[in-house]
Amino acid sequence: MVTNKFPATIVLVILLCCASMVAQQSATAPVTLSVTDQTGAGIPHLQVRVVPAPDPAPKMETDEKGKLSLDLKPGGYALFARSSGFKPIATHFEVRTTKESQTIPFVLQIATYSGPVVVVAAISKADLTLLASPYHDPSGLSLAQLKVLPHTTVTVHNSHTNADETYSGIRVADILTPLGAPLGKELHGIALTNYLVATGSDGYQVVFALAEVDPSFHPGEVLVADTMNGKPLDDHSGPLKLVVTDDKRPARSVRNLTTIELRLLQ
Fold first, then answer.
1. I want to staple 261 with a disulfide (CB 3.0 to 4.6 A). Which of 103, 131, 146, 205 is the partner?
2. Please, which residues bridge with residue 183 across strands?
């Protein structure tokens, strides 16, 4: 009988490597969020919301000096806060991959108008432009990238042609989730005021509440379709089309879809 035995040193190396990988995946960094007014004075007892939320979530409120200490995994986060007399803040910040303490400053501006100004950068060479500030920087997806994402198939009735049409496409929720949009268990409270604006190449625009595209919240499907009846969309409708199953009229099914933007209600 032949048996395979690994030397003890090899087994130890494997175990140490696995432990190191687990530690890296679960590692957090000490982060201090510092919120001040324009004079540099800290804003105490300010309710702050961070997305994705730390787990377990501490009391999300600044101290007497306007500071909030958190342990966060490296990556991108959105921060929301509002205080009487100031513009609400909705912005993006990054946590570095390091064990050293990081202090990230935020300044609340005096409220001379409602809401922050969002500056959008142009996205080139993208068949679908995605704007999700402050959750994520502007980005885009090509037809090839969309093609490999998980597809859902739906059949809708076209009242104009009096015929059923079968579309295959990607759920809008699946496109927005990697951008940090507050979907699923994050979709509650102030997040329910988020909404989407979908735009076609001719400038036609429609609006959806964010909850309408979340399968865990709403029974209907909202897809970015790339095929109809098993074939790529023609020039009249495609290459991409927003398809909505639960609307009684197809007015929000956007032909020649070019942009999906997630906005915050100011």
1. 131
2. none
Say yes or no: 85 and 174 in one domain.
no
- Where do runs of H (alpha helix) occur along the chain? 8-26, 143-147, 172-176
Model pTM above 0.85: no
Instruction: Count CB neighbours of 176 within 10 A.
Output: 23
The domain boundary, picked from 107, 137, 160, lies at: 107
Per-residue pLDDT for the chain (266 aa), expressed as one digit of tens each? 444 454 544 434 344 444 444 344 458 889 999 999 888 889 998 988 888 888 777 888 999 999 999 999 998 888 888 777 777 788 889 998 877 889 999 998 876 533 333 333 334 567 999 998 888 888 899 999 999 999 999 999 888 888 899 999 999 999 999 888 999 988 988 889 999 999 999 999 999 999 999 999 999 999 999 999 999 999 999 999 999 999 988 899 999 999 999 998 76
**Residue 206: CB partners within 8 Å, gap ≥ 6?**
197, 198, 242, 251, 252, 254
What tokens appear for 90 in the block?
Answer: 């909705």
Q: Which DSSP letter does residue 110 get?
A: B
Same-domain pairing of 87 and 194: no
- Tokens 């089309």, residue? 241
Give the contacts of 184 (CB within 8 A, at least 6 positions apart): 177, 214, 216
Quote the DSSP letter at residue 3: -
